[in-house]
Each structure stands twice: as structure tokens, then as C-alpha cells.
Specification:
The protein is built from 20 helices and four strands. By secondary structure, the chain is mainly alpha-helical.
Length: 474
């Protein structure tokens, strides 16, 4: 039975971490991938399709839909916005922290569990970009892989069938989140830690069955996704756009930014800084190292596998960050038997982590947008008296860069919002100004090309929005 105290601690951690990560959640600028995922989810709502689609109605092939379904659920509940798009990642991060706490407390002690949860949740790298506060699949994938690895460890220790079922279900679900990388990380962890686990009397029960169920469930789920894509498009399209472009060419180094062989070591040093001295001190203390192998493998699995690929992106290593957090927390607790020293070391670790955080970059004071449409969305979304509508002949302009794609996304979200007041003041978007438009009532929102159509805003709110957003058009 789980004690009431432990349940209460888990609830406090979950709520506290979720609230902290939600502060100014809509302020950081949208990453390229966030624009892509949010646009596909919004299009699926507009076109009333189950699966995420692109603007032309074609199925979105790049990523499986599970995390995007979570984003859509948030959109349906809260309305489309950067905050709603990023909220599922924040909740997944809080869930991962709670799972880490539960495992750490059960196996290594209460303080180790709490410390691991906090180190994971407030590691700079996964807070700044493409991680725990982003509208991307990464946070959900981290949660599922963490649950699968912890499910394996409980299966080894306590041999309850539901623990095996948990790891199988989590691993299968990960096939509908991102890529085969999650299966590779879990597989490496299982195989490399099996011999040390057997020597410690915790070998995996029915090893062949466990491997078969885990890999088989993931493979069936992944093939089901490929089948859905093939039925909606074609086998050739899936093979070319997904298997070749997204997987093969990325591994070959033909897609993405190429980095040197020390890329992930440098990334870990930037993210964890002096905390990485803790496992070194643990080894030097010559104390109980039975758990070191498993934690070290978990901490290194994703970075080592990612290094084997010629195309390196910082977030490829994130699947190991829960393992690194747990390794650091256990190291802090195992260096000494003195409770006062342990408590002081835990406090010092959290203090070092807090000082390491680039607070202004993670929680910027002002919302960051590439252009005026983002600012228009911010103002209009907070004022129920403003309604933004397109003119009857309005057309979106060709998208060539992220600024254009972001502008289109914010305007689409405003159109989706619709009227929220019985008698709103209306803002109309046009491609050409009607004759007789007063300069103080019009503002050019953006012009993708030097020549040709542009997008103007005609202010029906007595010129107040024009005054807020910029100088009136001449």
C-alpha cells in the first residue's frame, strides 16, 4: 500500500511543478515545429477530421497523432492558443516528475525521489526549447518511456503482472507519439542492464516473453499507424516522406544540423553543470554502487544512441534526462550516511540548479512574436469586445518563412475564436484597402513580398487597435 504521506507529496509535486511551468507559458516565441503542429491541429478542427491534416486537407505524415490529439483536446477545452497548445506538455512533465518521485522514493528513499523530480522538472535545456514547455511531442514521449523503464524495474523487483502490462502499454503508446527512437532507448536499457540485474538477484522474469511483448506491442502499434497513413495516402508516399525523409535521411545526416562528436557531452554540461560532479563523488566514496550501473545506462542510453546518428538535435537526448535526474539525486544521497550532510547536499543541489536556470529566457516578461498578427491575437484574445473577421474576398498569402506561417496561425486562431460578445467591435482583414478608408482606421499587418498583395487590418474599434499596434497606414 502507498502511504498517505507519499500520495500527498506526489500531489504537491504535481501541482507545484505544473503551476511553475505554466507561468507565462504563452510568452516564449513559437518554434518552427510548434507552428507546424499547432497549424495541423487547428486545420483538423476547422475541417472536422479526426487525424491532423495540412491546409490542403492532406494527412499530416511527419508525426503520429497521440500528442497532437492531446493538443486538440486542450484547444477544444480552452480555445486555440499557445498556452493551450503547450499545456499538455506541462502536464506530461508534471506526470514524469511524479513517476520519478514514486520510483525514487520506493527504491532509494523519500529525499532521493523528491530531489530527482525537481532536478528533472527544472533542468534548463528541456525548459528552454522543444521540451517540457513546448507544443511538441517530446514531453509525452519522455513520460511514456520513463513509465516503461520504471515499469520494467518494478517488474524485475516485485514481479507483478500489471507491472509488465504497464511497460508494454506505455511502450506501445510511444509508437503513436514520435519515432522508433523510444523503442531503441528502452531496448538498450533492458539489454545492457540485464546482466547486472541478474547478479543483484533482480533479473527480468521471463526475459524472452518480456522482450517479445514489449517489442511486439510497439511494432504492432507502429504498423497500425503506417497502415492508417497508407490507407489515407499511399504506400509510396509513406515510404518516401516518412521512412526515407524523416528516418533514413535523418540518420544518414542528410536532414538536420550536423554537430561534432562531443555535442551531447557539451549539451549535458550546459544543462546540468556542477551537478554532474555528484555521481563522480559517489564513485569516489566507494560506497554502495549496486544501483550505479542501471542509473548510468539510463542516463547515457539516449545521448549515446543519438551520437550514433550523423544528424544531431539537442532534444534527442531528452529521453535520458529522467535517468540523469535520478542518478544525480541518488548520488547526493549515497555519498554519506549522515542525514544532516545529505540534507545539506540536497539543498545545495537545488540551489545550484536554481542559479543555473536562465529565468528570463524561460519565463520572458513580454510575449515574443515575429510580427503584428501575434500582437493582434494577444490583444483581441483578451478582450471579449473585439471580433476579428476576414473580408468576403480575403485570402491568406503564400507562406515562405516562419514569420508568415506564424502570422497565418495567429489569424486562423482569431477567426476560429469568433464572436465572444453580444455586441463586439469588428476588425476586418483585407488584402486591399477599400476606397475611402481613413488612414487612422487601417494598419498593414504584414507584407510577405515587396510587391503584390498584403494584409491590412481595418479597425472598427474607433482606431484603438491601430493606436495599440502601430502607426496608422498612409
Amino acid at each position: 500500500m502507498i502511504s498517505r504521506r507519499r500520495i500527498a507529496t506526489a500531489v504537491v509535486l504535481a501541482v507545484g511543478i505544473a503551476l511553475a511551468l505554466s507561468v507565462r507559458l504563452d510568452h516564449p516565441g513559437l518554434h518552427t515545429d510548434e507552428i507546424t503542429y499547432m497549424s495541423c491541429v487547428l486545420e483538423s478542427m476547422v475541417q472536422e477530421t479526426v487525424f491532423p491534416v495540412q491546409g490542403n486537407g492532406a494527412l499530416f505524415l511527419n508525426k503520429p497523432p497521440l500528442s497532437l490529439w492531446m493538443m486538440r483536446l486542450s484547444f477544444e477545452a480552452l480555445g486555440p492558443s499557445p498556452f493551450a497548445a503547450r499545456l499538455p506538455s506541462v502536464l506530461a512533465a508534471a506526470g514524469t516528475a511524479v513517476v520519478l518521485y514514486g520510483f525514487g522514493a520506493a527504491v532509494f528513499g523519500e529525499m532521493a525521489g523528491i530531489l530527482a523530480a525537481l532536478i528533472f522538472a527544472f533542468t534548463p535545456g528541456i525548459l528552454k526549447l522543444h521540451g517540457l514547455r513546448s507544443a511538441t511531442p517530446d514531453a509525452l514521449e519522455i513520460l511514456l518511456v520513463t513509465c516503461a523503464i520504471i515499469g520494467l524495474e518494478f517488474w524485475r523487483r516485485r514481479r507483478r503482472p500489471w507491472m509488465l502490462a504497464c511497460l508494454v502499454v506505455c511502450l506501445a503508446a510511444s509508437a503513436w507519439v514520435k519515432s522508433p527512437f523510444s523503442l531503441a532507448v528502452f531496448g538498450v536499457y533492458l539489454l545492457v542492464t540485464e546482466l547486472p540485474a541478474r547478479r543483484a538477484g533482480r533479473g527480468t522474469p521471463r526475459l524472452a516473453l518480456t522482450i517479445g511483448l514489449a517489442a511486439g506491442a510497439w511494432l504492432l502499434a507502429w504498423l497500425l499507424w503506417l497502415g492508417v497513413l497508407s490507407s489515407a495516402t499511399s504506400t509510396d508516399a509513406v515510404g518516401k516522406r516518412l521512412l526515407i525523409q524523416q528516418y533514413a535521411q535523418r540518420i544518414e545526416g542528410k536532414v538536420g544540423v550536423l554537430e561534432g562528436p562531443w555535442f551531447y557531452l557539451e549539451s549535458l554540461l550546459r544543462d546540468f553543470g556542477p551537478l554532474l560532479l555528484l555521481p563522480i563523488a559517489w564513485l569516489a566514496s566507494r560506497r554502495n554502487h549496486r544501483e550505479m550501473t542501471g542509473l548510468a545506462v539510463w542516463a547515457l542510453a539516449a545521448p549515446v544512441l543519438a551520437t550514433a546518428s550523423a544528424s544531431k538535435l539537442a532534444w534527442y537526448a531528452y529521453l535520458s534526462y529522467p535517468g540523469i535526474a535520478l542518478l544525480l539525486a541518488v548520488s547526493a544521497q549515497e555519498i554519506s550516511e549522515r542525514k544532516a550532510f545529505r540534507a545539506a547536499l540536497a539543498a545545495a543541489s537545488l540551489a545550484a540548479l536554481a542559479l543555473w536556470l536562465p529565468v528570463r529566457a524561460i519565463w520572458p516578461e513580454q510575449a515574443e512574436y515575429r510580427g503584428l498578427p501575434g500582437r493582434l491575437w494577444e490583444i483581441a484574445s483578451r478582450d471579449p469586445e473585439i471580433e476579428v473577421v476576414p473580408a468576403p474576398d480575403f485570402k491568406f498569402l503564400r507562406q515562405s518563412v516562419d514569420a508568415d506561417r506564424e502570422s497565418r496561425l495567429f489569424l486562423r486562431m482569431l477567426f476560429r475564436r469568433g464572436a465572444v460578445s453580444p455586441d463586439p467591435c469588428r476588425v476586418t482583414l483585407v488584402n486591399r484597402l477599400p476606397p475611402g478608408t481613413e488612414p487612422e482606421d487601417a494598419l498593414e499587418l504584414y507584407r510577405p513580398l515587396r510587391r503584390g498583395p498584403r494584409i491590412w487590418m481595418i479597425d472598427g474599434c474607433n482606431g484603438w487597435l491601430v493606436e495599440q499596434l502601430g502607426q496608422p497606414a498612409g
